[in-house]
Amino acid sequence: MSLAMMAESRFDLSPWYVAKALAVLGVGAALILQGLPTHHPFRSIGSANLATAARGTLVALLAALVGERFGNPVQYVALAVATTAATLDGVDGWLARKTNTSSRFGARFDMETDALLILTLAVLAWQFGKAGIWVLLSGAMRYLFVLASLALPWLRAPLPHSFRRKAVAVLQTIALLVAMAPFVPNPASALIAGIALLALSSSFLIDVIWLKRKA
After folding, report:
1. Which end of the chain is more exposed for a tag (fewer CB within 10 A), N or C?
2. Could you tell me the pTM of the whole model?
3. CA 98 → CA 102, 136, 191, distances in Å?
């Protein structure tokens, strides 16, 4: 966590910053260790999952910024870290295919890292004053879907492969990166985030309707 300690010192963040980053990493590590024996069929964790773990570390550093008070320099650093984490999204999948180590564990690990990144970006966009509190729905929607599936078992049925779902997820990430950028003024940032949220809502609605019909 030397990066977190350096950031805390360099940008005069609160003493809680490192603790928050460690908490996010700790919860993530606990979930990984819980799922690894059951869903990972290979002897080693593999380079693809290590790439996802590196991306998860960047996301933890971003998530720890929630609730912090800082100026413009940190917002640019946050944008750079977030862009790096988003760009690396395709690396783990490429490594898994190249090394023939694709697994349900790796796919879920990648998906959960993506979900946390989108949630963090949404919170930071709101924290930076780049969009209203409604932008939090962009990051919370998947978690709300999971909660709803606890009461409605038909929502837990597997969904077919969908290019539309992947495209909307990429669009959501890019839109939130643009929205949180210090050089993009509000209301332009809010408009971009709002259009992406509308696309995400439509995508979830299509999946819910499909699952209901199949049920």
Report:
1. C
2. 0.91
3. 9, 36, 39
